[in-house]
Structures are given as structure tokens and as C-alpha cells.
Amino acid sequence: MKKELEKYFVIADTVQEANGDTCEVILYELTKSGSYVAYVANGTVTGQKTGEKSDYFVKQVLENKDFKDDHLSNYFFRTTDEKAVKSSSALLRDQDGDVIGMLCINMDITMLQNVNTMLMNYLKTDLEAGRNPGTGEHDVPQDVMAVIDKLIMSVIGSTDTRELSRSKCVGLVRLMDEKGIFLVKGAMDKVAELMGVSRVTIYSYLDEARGKKG
Predict the structure, then answer these.
(1) Domain containing 208: what range?
(2) What is the count of structural domains for the chain?
(3) What residues have CB less than 8 Å from 68, skipping those under 6 apart?
(4) Which carries the bigger pLDDT value, residue 107 or residue 148?
(5) 36-42: long-range pairs with CB below 8 Å, 24+
(6) How far apart are CA 27 and CA 101, in angstroms?
(7) What is the per-residue pLDDT across 101-119, written as a single tens digit (0 to 9) for each?
(8) CA dihedral sign, ordered 18, 19, 20, 26
(9) Closest by alpha carbon to 101, among 203, 1, 209, 212?
(10) 57 band by pLDDT with thresholds 50, 70 and 90
(11) In terms of domains, do 137 and 174 share one?
(12) Does the predicted TM-score (pTM) go above 0.70?
């Protein structure tokens, strides 16, 4: 092993200890015949051992399109026993500028991924699903709103709804409800405007229309 690599042992230990048991730091020696594990601080993540020949440098670092300026940060891979690992690697050079090794920091994030999934499921709300709680209304892009406008007009047409009886107005609202128009945020106000009535009136039409369904 190249003597220059030994000065990095203390750095490997320090980084590992600062990050705890889920952190593993490995020093690789890079030679013309391949790469070898020169030192391991807490080898519990990948299970690599000092002295082993390793193709890690080629497979995980050199072949990665984001590797540049002698380092690659925060890339992801899975171990053979399915641990999720976030890793960062940096090349080590001697005083002549020749590459002699690589420092690799591996973080086992398997448990964090599981906790994150659990938290996301726990914290999921109607708002995150694009729905307004209690109303069934969904936030939609403006181009979709344009489609909703066309759907409303396809039901109302050129009819002057202010001259229609209540039962006929309820019938129009029932048709809109069947097309899913009222699931969209803002549709209630748009229908009220086009029919020349208040939002409260549209709600009453809708309640009556739904009460007669089935």
C-alpha cells in the first residue's frame, strides 16, 4: 500500500465517528492492476474488508455521468443485501498530482427511507391530493378550467336560465353534476355567474338534484 494513503486514515475515522453507526468510510488504493480496499472505518454498510480487490471505483464512480472535478457526491446504490446507500467519493492525489486512491463515504439510509415513507403516508392530506377538504373540489390548471367552461356552456347553451323554473334549473345542475363539473375548484362560482344566481342557490339546486338521484 502506498504510504501517502496512511495520512487519510484519521480523516476516515473522524468522518465515520461524526456520522454514527450508519456511516462507513472506505479508502481505496488505485493501482495499475486495479483498486483495493486500503482501509475501512466501520465496514457494516457494504461489508468490504481491508485488502479486498474491488471494482467499486469503476462501476459506481467512473461510469457515473456526474463524476467530475475529482469527486462525485450524493449518488445512490443498493448493496447485495438490499441496503439503500447514499454515497460520496473523492479522488486522492500525491504531491505530483497522480491519483493514488479514493475516499468514499457510504451512508446506510434504509431506515430513513422507511421512516420517510411512513411519515409521508401519515401526513398525507386532502390538500396534498389536490382536493379541498369537505368540498370534493380539486385544484386544476387553467387549461383544464377552460375545458370546464366549455362543459358548463354545453349544458346551459344559449338558454336564459333566469327565465327557467326551479325544477328546470335543478335539471341543468344535475347534468353538470353528472359530468363532474362541481369537482373542480371554482366551478361553483362559474355556474352561479352564468346562471345569474348566487353560489348558495347553486348549492341548493345541487342538494335537490343529488337528493333525487337513484
Answers:
(1) 131-212
(2) 2
(3) none
(4) 107
(5) 36/1, 38/1, 38/5, 38/101, 39/5, 39/8, 39/9, 39/12, 41/12, 41/13, 41/15, 41/16, 41/17, 42/16
(6) 7
(7) 899 999 999 888 777 677 6
(8) negative
(9) 1
(10) low
(11) yes
(12) no
